[in-house]
Amino acid sequence: HVQLVESGGGSVQAGGSLRLSCSVSGYTYSTACMGWIRQSPGKEREGVAAFSYGGGSTWYANTVKGRFTISRDNAKNTLYLQMSNLKPEDTAVYYCAASLLGWVRNCSRPGVYNYWGQGTQVTVS
User: Fold this and answer.
1) 8 A C-beta contact, residue 102 and residue 32
2) Phi/psi of residue 74, each to 5°?
3) Are the C-beta atoms of residues 60 and 49 closer than 8 Å to each other?
4) How far apart are CA 49 and CA 69, in angstroms?
5) Which pLDDT score is estimated for 74?
6) Whether residue 29 has pLDDT greater than 80
7) N-term to C-term CA, the chain
8) CA 58 to chain CA centroid, nearest Å
């Protein structure tokens, strides 16, 4: 059982920055993926950035490479998404998500995640 609590969303001007945080609690020994997923109204969910623990890799969507950075603080059990040079097309609800499906190695697809935070709105204008 994993619980995720997000914070850090808000409204910023284009070119600005935001730092999203995700507090993680519960049993995480079998976690395959920790990632950030976003969804805009009328659009499908899309992966933004993720850690694959089984694969030992980090993934970024092409649309955010060079602008977003995923990181973690193991001592604080917290996952972060640092977003810089934000663009209006980054406007979405951002979710922290975890996959407890142990066989998963590719963490880029939203469908692999089975635990989700409540979501936090990011608006860029």
Assistant:
1) yes
2) -65, -35
3) yes
4) 8
5) 85
6) no
7) 37
8) 12
> Tokens 């880029």, residue?
108
Residues 6+ apart with CB under 8 A from 39: 45, 46, 92, 93, 95
Residues belonging to the chain: 125
Q: Which residue has the higher pLDDT, 7 or 75?
A: 7
pLDDT of residue 30: 79
Structure tokens of 28?
């995480």
CA distance 92 to 1: 27
**DSSP string across the chain:** -EEEEEE--EEE-TT--EEEEEEEEE--TT--EEEEEEE-TTS--EEEEEEETTTTEEEE-TTTTTTEEEEEEGGGTEEEEEE-S--GGG-EEEEEEEE--TT-----SGGG--EE---EEEEE-
